[in-house]
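[SOLVED] Need 3D model of a two-part complex

Original post:
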Amino acid sequence: MKRLIILTVVLFTMLLSGCAIHHPQTAEEFRKAVPGAFMGKVETLEVNRPFSDVAKTFQKKAPECLNVTVKTTSQTRMSYQVIVTTYKPTVLVAAEKAELHVQFHHEAGVLNVSKEPEGGYYLLVADAYPINKNTTRVDLYRPSMGHDVLIKAIKGWASGENVGCPDLTKS
Amino acid sequence: METNTNVMSRYITGLLVTVSLLTGCLGIRPYPNTMDKNLHIQTKTDSGSFFSKVRAAVDIYRVDADCKTKYEGTIQLNEPSVDVGIPSHRLSYLVFVFSSSSFLASSNSTVTHDTLLKPSAGYNYDIKVSYIDDIYNVVIRETHPRKPGSRDIELKDLSACGGF
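Solution:
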């Protein structure tokens, strides 16, 4: 399972980078790249929650939960692999839009194949917009495979139904 | 052919190694928990899979005026509810540890969630700890037995120590 996720991330990285030549260097580049990427997905959801509440939850939970370094080890009879990954969340809130960017940087165990943006490769971008007083739309630019726990957590923050932190050792 | 003495000697050595690994050598020791109980910790864990399990615990540290921590011990959160006593009017550092193990993949992982807490005298702190389907949460609510209302305590990591 872990190998599948690692493979997914590598493929996702390569596909987004156009065969390992260029990787999105900004959140805006990431938004543009995801719809056409083989393992990228744009998902839209509407939540029955005021925009300001969604923005506040992003501001509170992202630094609390996603500012982490995760060490994963996998061992078989023939190999032993250690991967150290640091995640970096960024939340930007304006009057009509709240953005949550999640980046990751491999400290050890993975060879980078393209230029890495400052703060790490983009893994996910969530944009929240007010639709009306009590409804907010959230656009998720995300991988279509893997990182289910992270995606589930961010959806929970948006809806307010589950404001827990994702166990990123399971990503 | 091994003598009974040799077998017994190996058995005792193995037992001592196991005990020392489980206690001192790993650096984990039970928190004495002798003070008046002001933390009421409710724990729910569910790995979401028959083939894996999750265990929760809280490591308790004393924090001095220079924001240096000293490990005081660990409380295993194996029961749905556990009462713990920590000093009032003094900063403590609580590290909630969630350890998962998968039987099939023979893998282990640990994730932690930490906060500083400075309890006020006479107040109780209801702490809800959960790890369900790979999502974990710690919520702390301050209440007073004779005063109405309650308030959520914001979790603050060690870097916020200077602000207390």
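Edit: Chain A touches chain B through 21 residues (CB under 8 Å).
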